[in-house]
Structure formats: structure tokens, C-alpha cells
Design brief:
The chain is α/β, with parallel strands linked by helices. The protein has a 6-stranded parallel β-sheet with strand order 1-4-3-2-5-6, sandwiched between helices. Bound molecules: pantoate (PAF). Pantoate (PAF) binds next to strand 2 and helix 6.
Length: about 280
């Protein structure tokens, strides 16, 4: 029988518990989150459960990954519901640190981790400093929790690549695992930010996924990549989105594909609808 969900805000307690489990020979899986958990997060816990004897999740709305005009203050905080969901999903330990626990010298004075190039384009260009905040908090969490494996959603495709690179470049002995995007029945990728949409916007939001599928189909038919990107931008703009980008990139390093490069591609979209900024992608 599984033990109840344990909860702590103290990093030293997480370390002590994880060290105890490791001494008993358990493999530790880690699911970092910002809370407001939905089926997509529960799928990360399930993936961790499938490969690890113990699962640790964190809930922390990380101030350093939000720009000055972004939704840090408004970001939905639902910790008791999150804890109930984590219990049901089979998580063993919830780390719910305060800002002071993760940034003991204050946010402004904190060490920053920067992943050049991979983190600079796409969302990095539209959200300056965002991936520095992500790489910084994830490396702090990795050092504090010391998991064997860590699980991230593929919906945040660029984030996944940034974290993989950061982990390898810093020589951390952690396997970073990407988990498939969980979608609503109409295809919209699950996201905490979907709740910013009005009913009318929510109905329209599915157009992002449809556009991505159309991009994949057009590339499969041999259409020119730049023309496909332009058609996607026009389609989303006509549907009322303010599009940050609709792009096709190499899936491995997010570089612009050169004609002679034959490796896997990914189509990615980031677009704003009402108060929400939505991202999604499909592999080609
Ligand atoms: O994907 C998220 O929820 C966040 O960016 C993460 C990885 C938990 C870092 O704050």
C-alpha cells in the first residue's frame, strides 16, 4: 500500500527524506510544477510512478520566470486542490517552498543560470529572461531534491530542450524525461492559462492545434517551410489571435532547418487570445 502524501516547505526535510529513500534502494522521480494542477500534470506523476519507486512533486510559482508585465500575481494558486490531486495520482512527497526558501539572498541577488542560443529564440525572444528564470529554478530544485529522473511536459517544448541542455552542461546525473501533451477532447493542449479564456475564446483556442496539424500536413506534402509558417501566421491572425510566432524548427536544437538537414522537425506556435498566451507544438 502507498504511504500518504507528505508535505513540506523546507528543503532540508526534502533532502533528508530523499536520502532515506535512496539508502533503501529506491529510485526518485521528480515532477516540478507551478501548481494549479490538471490532467497534464497528473500524467507527469503517472510517468514518474511507472519508472520510480518514489515520486516527489514541487509546487512553486517561480517569480524569476515572469516578466514585469506578466501574470505572476494573478497566476492561479490552488495548493489544497493540488495536494489532493497529487495524493490521488500517487505522489509521495510535495515540496511547497516559499520564495525565501528558494531564493535565500532575495530574488534580485540570486544566481542566474542562462542557456544561450536554445533559450534565446522563440518564447525567449518574446519573454526576455523567462528561460533564465526557468533554468535557475529548475537547477536549484534539482540540487535540493537530487532526483534520479525528472519529468516535464512536451507542450513546453523549448523549456524541455533548455532543461535537457542545462542538465547535461552542468553535468547533473539526472535523466530528463519528456511526457506527451495531454489534450482536451477538441485538441486544445491542457494548460493552467486556459482558464484565462472566456467561453467564446475557449471555443476558438482549438484553432492553434488545428493550425499545427495543417503545418505538419503541408510540410509532409513537400510545401516550402517559410510559406507554411506564413500561412499559419495568417490563419491564426484571421482567427483573432495575436501571434508571437508560428515556426518550424529542428526538433533537436530548435535551429532553423536548412534544406539539407533531414532530421525531425517540430512546428511550434505561441499566440495570445484575450488575456491568455497559449503555446503548443507538434512533431513533424
Ligand atoms: O513548466 C512549469 O510549470 C515551470 O516552468 C517549471 C518547470 C515548474 C519551472 O518553474
Amino acid at each position: 500500500m502507498r504511504s500518504e502524501l507528505q508535505r513540506t516547505a523546507i528543503a532540508a526535510e526534502v533532502r533528508a527524506r530523499v536520502a532515506q529513500w535512496r539508502r533503501a534502494g529506491d529510485r526518485i522521480g521528480f515532477v516540478p510544477t507551478m501548481g494549479n494542477l490538471h490532467a497534464g500534470h497528473h500524467a507527469l506523476v503517472a510517468a514518474a510512478r511507472a519508472r520510480c519507486e518514489r515520486v516527489v512533486a514541487s509546487v512553486f510559482v517561480n517569480p524569476t520566470q515572469f516578466g514585469p508585465n506578466e501574470d505572476y500575481a494573478a497566476y492561479p494558486r490552488t495548493i489544497e486542490d493540488d495536494a489532493a490531486g497529487l495524493t490521488a495520482a500517487g505522489c509521495d512527497l510535495l515540496f511547497e517552498p516559499t520564495v525565501a526558501e528558494l531564493y535565500p539572498f532575495g530574488v534580485a541577488a540570486s544566481v542566474r543560470v542562462h542557456v544561450p542560443l536554445l533559450g534565446d529564440g522563440l518564447c525567449g525572444a518574446f519573454r526576455p529572461g523567462h528561460f533564465d528564470g526557468v533554468a535557475t529554478v529548475v537547477s536549484k530544485l534539482f540540487h535540493l531534491v537530487q532526483p534520479d529522473l525528472a519529468f516535464f511536459g512536451r507542450k513546453d517544448f523549448q523549456q524541455l530542450r533548455v532543461i535537457e541542455r542545462m542538465t547535461r552542461d552542468l553535468g547533473l546525473d539526472i535523466e530528463v524525461v519528456g511526457v506527451d501533451t495531454v489534450r482536451e477532447p477538441d485538441g486544445l493542449a491542457m494548460s493552467s492559462r486556459n482558464q484565462y479564456l472566456s467561453a467564446e475564446e475557449r471555443a476558438r483556442a482549438v484553432e492553434i492545434h488545428r493550425t499545427l496539424l495543417a503545418m505538419r500536413e503541408a510540410v509532409g506534402q513537400g510545401r516550402d517551410r517559410v510559406a507554411v509558417e506564413k500561412a499559419a501566421l495568417d490563419r491564426l491572425t484571421a482567427a483573432g489571435f495575436r501571434v508571437d510566432y508560428a515556426a518550424i524548427r529542428c526538433a533537436e536544437d530548435l535551429a532553423e532547418p536548412a534544406a539539407e538537414r533531414r532530421e525531425a522537425w517540430v512546428a511550434l506556435v505561441a499566440a495570445r487570445l484575450g488575456k491568455a498566451r497559449l503555446i503548443d507544438n507538434v512533431l513533424i
